[in-house]
């Protein structure tokens, strides 16, 4: 049985599709249309009680939720794909730092942007503040990276895939080129890598 990936267009499942493409591993894609709140339906909550995508089912049936947990699981199961710098390489710590920063600080802003009504009665100001807070983190990451074209040179890491996808959300496709040109270049490098181009194009435009 192949991997089974629950997800939606332009969502966090795109990161997992990119990782699977980099590994060269097939997955059965099961759509969970967020536009109709299918993630909140009882049927899907039996798979992921959080009602979020992505969810990956391992070939032996184990359920993995949380984008970073899924990515680290794939990295551990497919060492030949070199999805992170190895063991004691300081690059591994750097990759984990950027991934965890994005997952823990930017992703919650995404939820506030997409579903402001969950957080209070002033959706416009909730969304505006979420965008500002996320952009503070994007500026911090931009200042700390020197991609060439990926964070660690010619080979993309999980952190490259993570940052490339999250940088497309919250109206930031238009904001990135001027304010975070290094992140924009990194996203373009992910989008144009031959192994990744088809998976990227299923979700996002080509970053210019
Ligand atoms: N902590 C989760 C967050 C996942 C998440 O928020 N996914 C969004 C789509 S990108 C989602 O499912 N939103 C639907 C909702 O919040 O109802 C992860 O890292 O996978």
List keywords for this structure.
single chain, 208 residues, alpha+beta, Glutaredoxin, 2 domains, globular, binds glutathione
Give a verbal description of the structure.
By secondary structure, the chain is of the alpha+beta class. It folds into two domains: 79 residues, Glutaredoxin; 104 residues, Glutathione S-transferase Yfyf (Class Pi), Chain A, domain 2 (Up-down Bundle). Helices cover 53% and strands 8% of the residues. The protein contains nine helices and four strands. Strands 2-1-3-4 form a four-stranded mixed beta sheet. α1 links the parallel β1 and β2. α1 runs parallel beside α3, α1 packs antiparallel against α6 and α6 crosses α8. The radius of gyration is 17 Å and the shape is globular. The N and C termini lie far apart (38 Å). The structure holds glutathione (GSH).
Summarize the model shown.
Helix content is 53%, strand content 8%.
Task: Give the strand tally.
Answer: 4
Q: Quick one: overall form?
A: globular
> Biggest β-sheet, characterized?
4 strands, mixed
CATH class of the largest domain: Mainly Alpha
Distance between the termini: 38 Å
CATH topology of the largest domain: Glutathione S-transferase Yfyf (Class Pi), Chain A, domain 2
Strand content: 5-15%
Bound molecules: glutathione
Look at the helices and sheets and give the structural class.
Answer: alpha+beta
User: How do the helices and strands follow one another from N- to C-terminus?
Assistant: EHEHEEHHHHHHH
User: Segments where pLDDT lies below 50 for 5+ residues?
Assistant: none
Radius of gyration: 17 Å
What is the helix content? 40-55%
């Amino acid at each position: 049985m192949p991997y089974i990936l629950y997800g939606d267009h332009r969502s966090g499942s795109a990161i997992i599709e990119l990782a699977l493409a980099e590994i060269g591993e097939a997955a059965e894609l099961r759509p969970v249309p967020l536009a109709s709140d299918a993630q909140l339906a009882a049927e899907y909550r039996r798979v992921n009680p959080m009602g979020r995508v992505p969810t990956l089912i391992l070939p032996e049936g184990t359920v993995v939720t949380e984008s970073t947990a899924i990515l680290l699981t794939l990295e551990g199961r497919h060492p030949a794909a070199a999805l992170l710098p190895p063991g004691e390489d300081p690059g591994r710590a750097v990759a984990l730092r950027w991934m965890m920063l994005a997952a823990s600080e930017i992703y919650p802003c995404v939820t506030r942007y997409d579903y402001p009504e969950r957080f209070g009665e002033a959706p416009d100001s909730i969304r505006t503040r979420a965008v500002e807070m996320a952009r503070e983190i994007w500026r911090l990451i931009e200042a700390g990276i020197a991609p060439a074209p990926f964070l660690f040179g010619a080979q993309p890491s999980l952190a490259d895939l993570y940052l490339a996808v999250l940088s497309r959300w919250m109206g930031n496709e238009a904001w990135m080129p001027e304010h975070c040109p290094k992140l924009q270049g990194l996203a373009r490098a992910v989008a144009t890598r031959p192994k990744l181009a088809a998976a990227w194009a299923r979700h996002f435009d080509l970053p210019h």
